[in-house]
Amino acid sequence: MASCFCVKNTSPGTPSNAACEPNQLPPPLARVVTLALAIAAVLGTGVSAASPGATPAPSPDAYAAQRQRMVEEQIRSRGVTDPRVLRAMLTVPRHRFVPDEYLSQAYADRPLPIGYGQTISQPYIVALMSAEADVRSGERALEIGTGSGYQAAILAELTDQVYTIEIIQPLARAAARRLRDLGYVRVRTRIGDGYLGWPEAAPFDAILVTAAPDHVPPPLLAQLREGGRMVVPVGPPGLVQTLWRITKKGGKLEFTNLGSVLFVPLVRP
Questions:
Q1: Choosing from 3, 121, 130, 148, which is the catalytic residue?
Q2: Known catalytic residue: 137?
Q3: Which stretches in the chain have pLDDT values below 50?
């Protein structure tokens, strides 16, 4: 549901071996090539007049270079160096989580609108929260505010136990489909009030809240496992908020200030 940004931060000429078009070939051969092309068009095999029967190479990831720059220039350079988090940020196709009109900005250093007054967070913030939550393989993670599903996909690269809640139904349904289509079939999704958490799946080793409440929700603290970490922005809507890491140790809560941020407010019923 949420998001945020960090406040502080063909060469000229014709080659001699150019392929013939079908109407330049002897009639019997032309008919064979034409038939092959027609079949290829239906089957999607990618056969061309220049290379009948060839198997095309897989399409390269057009956004791989942009993801690499994002990680190096926006994330690693700002101090997020956890190799697991960097690998996740390099792996997840962020452009699949933004509206089509913002594809050209998918890897920009800023949040982007996803509809319903919500945004997908700035890449640095996603990486920072993931690193601070310190999610390990096999641990159980809860996200409050699914939004487009990007943060949940990052978490799913870190552990196979991810739960995510979104209160805005169209966003929740679209995110669930998107995550499934991308292969993140183990991410559990729910439409509901994130303030209340997911008690029947508790306790959680990590809880990430991707929208800002004006106080830390007690139900979420109660669902945090001993030794667990919560990363949550707290503060009034529309104003600068504080991003906190809360660690439960010996039944007590330790608060670490991670800096100033600006998130959309946590939506309640």
A1: 121
A2: no
A3: 7-56, 58
